[in-house]
Recover the amino acids of this structure.
């Protein structure tokens, strides 16, 4: 994710420095950040480095059934999660980690304590309430209270709308739909990423974000992710009314 | 405050390192942190260094009428505030700063953006609601809704109880009460710090925090603040029921 280099560079930590893309890294000592599903393109990623002295941190923020088939039980050494993407409560600023090594866990806890004087008690209470409501929905609760089923239906519908709008315009293309066996839903399910990685196919447009901005559609340019500026990242998680306006504007572009 | 060296040391920033007590600092380039009223002892502090290349950051977290007379309009270059101590909403993790230099303000904003991806929108809405309720109380609202008047009455009462309990025990002493002309309340008002800096006067007690812990009173030892362990810091801001138990336990100690 684009925020990683900014943070290490800004602090100029004596402990760590940003070393760029893991695919081109040479060395034994590193921390590899694996964002899976990936931001911005929703692809499932595996660590590309392996060394006894290196560590991989798996950011599983988007590994939830509304976004991607849950094809396997996650079992990495260090796994990060957040209520931001699972339930939409980004404002609580709450995440959690599953960590196998006790000493690594202790240092992560210490960092949280120093960086934010621990986690807000208000936020802990809110997050606990939210997560129990989600859990209760799957524990004999009414099916309309089942968050991930709701979320998946919503994401399937939005991706259908987006693919139709892109096809109607004739000027945009999207990653091909992939699917897999979801062990949570117990059925084959499509990948419905939280972001669309949209490409402008018009020959005369080199800056897709600028072109869309001219048509009142705000996106993040591919070059903010080290990619071709013909690509943009589109959030698929805005409110219904904003999403509907985005779709109608996109469909009308030739 | 004791958290400053921990944070700089933990990050091992290439930009800053903790240089210890400003009173013994030699050099021209520095950031001096001035906590006023001071934590733990509630004393009003001024910057002790002065250099064109140095900067002072005034932490005014406790500069509110319930804790201290507002004797002068604060007019420092960089001033930090927080709803944590002004209204008690620490869980929002919201503070604000008044900063004269535009470039310094820009860098502070950038740091907040990188460190916490901006400030939680939930928290901003809650803090705005809380601060308008406080402000409305002083803008023609009912006097029972005047937060700082309520807060000062509460703190005056708690300090009275604490001084009586310390006197009853005969084993503890407290800083002498100071007062000043408060321009907010428009009267002379006592200093009622959010923490009590309590000294155990018993000859046989060298570790006041340990002694109190043995009597089921939890405090922070003076040595956590670089001071004599005969001192402890006591929070004056716990709930009424917990505060009442603390007072009765303290009064019973000889």
């Amino acid at each position: 994710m684009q925020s990683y280099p900014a943070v290490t560079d800004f602090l100029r930590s004596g402990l760590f420095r940003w070393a760029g893309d893991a695919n081109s890294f040479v060395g034994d000592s590193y921390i590899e950040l694996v964002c899976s599903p990936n931001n911005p393109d929703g692809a499932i990623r595996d660590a590309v480095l392996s060394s006894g002295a290196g560590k991989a941190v798996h950011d599983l923020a988007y590994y939830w059934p509304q976004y991607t088939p849950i094809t396997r039980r996650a079992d990495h050494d260090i796994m990060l999660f957040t209520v931001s993407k699972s339930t939409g409560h980004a404002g609580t600023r709450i995440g959690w980690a599953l960590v196998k090594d006790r000493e690594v866990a202790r240092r992560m806890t210490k960092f949280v304590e120093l960086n934010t004087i621990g986690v807000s008690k208000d936020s802990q209470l809110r997050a606990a309430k939210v997560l129990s409501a989600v859990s209760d929905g799957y524990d004999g609760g009414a099916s309309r209270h089942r968050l991930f089923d709701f979320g998946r239906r919503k994401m399937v519908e939005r991706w259908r709308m987006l693919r139709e709008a892109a096809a109607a315009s004739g000027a945009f293309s999207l990653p091909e739909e992939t699917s897999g066996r979801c062990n949570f839903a117990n059925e084959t399910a499509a990948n419905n990423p939280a972001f669309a990685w949209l490409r402008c196919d018009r020959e005369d447009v080199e800056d897709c974000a600028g072109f869309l901005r001219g048509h009142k559609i705000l996106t993040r340019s591919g070059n903010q992710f080290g990619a071709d500026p013909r690509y943009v990242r589109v959030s698929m998680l805005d409110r219904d009314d904003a999403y509907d306006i985005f779709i109608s504007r996109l469909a009308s572009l030739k």
